[in-house]
Amino acid sequence: MIRTPLRPLARVLHARATGANPDAIERENLSLRHQEMQVQARQRAEGRLLVLGLFFVCAFGAIIARMAMTAVSEPAEPVASVPGSAIAMQRADIVDREGRLLATNFETHSLYAQPPQMIDPIGAAEKLVDIFPDLDRERLIKDFTGKRKFLWVKKKISPEQLQAVHDIGDPGLMFGPREMRLYPNGSLAAHVLGGAGFGKEGVNAAEVIGVAGVERQFDDYLRDPANAGKPLQLSLDLTVQAAAEQVLYGGMKLMNAKGATSILMDTHTGEVISVVSFPDFDPNDRPRPPTSGFDPSDSPLFNRAVQGVYELGSTFKIFTAAQAMDLGLVGADTVIDTRGPLRWGRFAIRDFRNYGNEMSVTKIIVKSSNIGTARLAQQIGVERQKSFLETLGMLQPTPFEISEAAGGKPLLPANWSELSAMTISYGHGISTTPMHLAAGYAAVANGGRYVAPTILKRNGAQLGQRVMSEASAAAARKMLRKVVSEGTASFAEVEGYQVGGKTGTADKPKPRGGYYEDKVIATFASIFPAHDPKYVLIVTLDEPSIIAHGEERRTAGWTATPVAAEMIGRVAPLLGLRPQVEPAEVTGITLTSN
């Protein structure tokens, strides 16, 4: 800004020339300058007052808005905040193939204490022990009256317990929101679902994470907000699962078995419709893993369907027969030398009974001849047998999508010799899980293609590579049907459903090596209906033993087979299968001209 001089030279000279007083000019300019400064000062003061007024208007507006929000919001207990990353609480539901709920989320609360804010810590501790009898009264009083500023009292409480604690009225007892996993069907499908627990925890939230089963296998999917809460749909059928569990539990008790497992699998899609393992547990209150003992199967957490690695005995014989026929080495009616014992070095292979000097391949399967099957294995050879079992998925853990399946790795011979091939041909010397066996029998049932077992719902057939010809698979199915109609599995006959299958009884191995003399693993592997198989059913009993006809019976024909028959009779109608008359074999007809 350029100021005007108080005594401009031009005006002063003019005033002197005209006889005027030059000092009057200075007084006039000084007065004008003072007036200008007053105007500027007033403008600055008015601007400051305007800014201050706007600030107060905004401040009071924010206070009024906050008061309005508080007035219309729900009352809640004050909680302490903990710095750190946000805790994701959302988790998608799990449903069965029909959309019925298997696992969901449930809103509850946690209980924690801030002792410095407590009015009567000793009284509060005594009242809490009355509400939660599992709490230690002395420890609680020590924590409440000590130097601790924060402690968890209960990670999960019910609405009734919340109200009871609220009625204590101590300001040092506070509640935090929680989202817990709820399994509305209790122990149903417990080994499949697995269970969930808490990951990162804060007073305002807790992260729910899967700890076993599909909850752990698909943890990323279930926790991903991008799925918009879309449920995880399994292949299980809730009604079939409930029926299978009821039958298997009853069968396990009747047969005095230590444990049991069953698998019901679609032969074309690989969908596991039902999978049961006993003993089981309630995933709402999942027990802790055992910390001692040599036998993991003693724990209810042990999933026998995918973790139980057993020698499954004579159920493997159908694979040997099918491969021998597929290679063109034999036909269904080819006669095999079954004179025994069959010796290999210092080892001898014997049959359960003397079946004569020779038998057809069909009879070998029907009568379950170890010697006959070993003869077929000699013709097949070690490398071809090993390759065939690999295509059936018998040499690697199954791809079944639960976290425990990866631990069910088959036990193979260190040196796969000719003797190994002979014993493996009738299910000894190789240990696999019942889930491996289900996949193998599905290949026989669906016409010779491998299908991977899955716990997820599929649309349409999921057939993999061909492992045997359709003709060999069809011949093997006829053999399995004759095992039931004429052989060792006569108790598996279910009117209207034409069951085909094979029994298998193997001595149970000891945890530290060797075999028990009086304990077995009894298995019945079946397909139904045998003329057009839709499903595979595997039933395995651990250490069964019954008294029948005055004798102690442990073999699968007396134990696992009748349990499987009862299960098929119960679940087949639930699967939409109608009873039908078994198609008769077409006899040879010669056409002649008129």
Question: How would you describe this structure in keywords?
Answer:
single chain, alpha+beta, five-stranded mixed sheet, five-stranded antiparallel sheet, 17 helices, elongated, Penicillin-binding protein 2
Structural features, described:
This protein is α+β, with helices and mostly antiparallel strands and 594 residues long. Helix content is 36%, strand content 19%. The chain contains 17 helices and 18 strands. The strands form six sheets. Strands 1, 2, 3, 4 and 7 form a five-stranded mixed beta sheet that branches. β5 and β6 form a beta hairpin. α3 runs antiparallel to α5, α9 packs antiparallel against α17 and α10 packs antiparallel against α16. The longest helix has 51 residues. About 2% of the residues have low confidence.
Number of E strands: 18
Radius of gyration: 41 Å
Kindly report how far apart the N and C termini lie: 133 Å
- Give a quick account of the main beta sheet: strands, pairing sense, barrel closure: 5 strands, mixed
Strand content: 15-25%
Would you identify the regions where 5 or more consecutive residues have pLDDT less than 50?
77-86
Mean pLDDT: 88
Q: In DSSP terms, counting alpha (H) and pi (I) runs of 4 or more, how many helices?
A: 17
Structural class: alpha+beta
Write the layout of secondary structure elements.
Elements: H1 9-18, H2 22-72, E1 94-95, E2 101-113, H3 121-131, H4 137-145, E3 151-157, H5 159-168, E4 173-182, H6 190-193, E5 195-201, E6 206-212, H7 213-217, H8 219-223, E7 232-233, H9 238-254, E8 259-266, E9 272-278, H10 317-326, E10 335-337, E11 342-344, E12 347-349, E13 358-360, H11 361-367, H12 370-380, H13 382-391, H14 418-424, H15 434-445, H16 470-486, E14 500-509, E15 515-528, E16 535-542, E17 546-548, E18 551-553, H17 560-574
Parallel strand pairs: 1-7
Antiparallel strand pairs: 1-2, 2-3, 2-4, 5-6, 8-9, 8-16, 10-13, 11-12, 14-15, 15-16, 17-18
